[in-house]
Write a structure and sequence with these properties.
Layout lengths: L3 E4 L16 E2 L7 E4 L4 E3 L8 E2 L2 E4 L4 E7 L1 H7 L1 E3 L4 E4 L13 E2 L1 E3 L5 E3 L4 E9 L24
Antiparallel strand pairs: 1-6, 2-3, 3-13, 4-12, 5-10, 7-9, 7-13, 8-11
Length: about 150
């Protein structure tokens, strides 16, 4: 197995009663895999959503990363951006002990109007990429010990 998407284990699911749509490319030449929200989201004017977990995890090779970006239609037509601008999902986030690698996102509304996103709507897109490290690379820690924001924490 090289790379792909799976449902997180049942005990880590945030929305166990919801049908989860697995990420899919829109066309044969699309770079990104569209990721849907499992629930309705209401984002107040000039405000942020809470973190929405997708109940999906991604596996990939050790020298790869999954970058998440807001879909163009969500950004340009609806005025939403990812709160962290670009999500970085490292290969060792997969199956971590805190949340099993559950991919989450948070949206910021740049408009003066409330924005509503419906369950099942394609919101973000994930793009797998290779990355490089420097010759004298010396990571702070040898392995991940948790989920979101856990790198470098004990």
């Amino acid at each position: 197995m090289k790379r792909g998407f799976e449902l997180v284990e049942d005990k880590y699911r945030k929305f166990p009663d919801m049908e989860i749509v697995m990420p899919q490319r829109g066309t044969q030449k699309s770079a990104g895999y569209d990721i849907c929200t499992p629930v309705d989201i209401v984002i107040p004017p000039r405000g942020c959503s809470k973190i929405i977990f997708t109940d999906i995890k991604a596996y990939m090779l050790e020298d790869e990363v999954l970058c998440t970006h807001v879909r163009s239609s969500i950004g340009m037509k609806r005025g939403l951006v990812l709160a962290n601008t670009t999500g970085i999902i490292d290969s060792d986030y997969y199956s971590n002990p805190d949340n099993d690698g559950n991919i989450g996102f948070m949206l910021r509304n740049l408009t003066d109007e409330e924005v509503i996103i419906k369950s099942g709507e394609r919101v973000i897109q994930g793009i797998f990429s290779k990355y490089l490290v420097v010759d004298d690379d010396d990571p702070k820690d040898s392995q991940r010990v948790g989920g979101v924001g856990s790198t470098g924490k004990k």
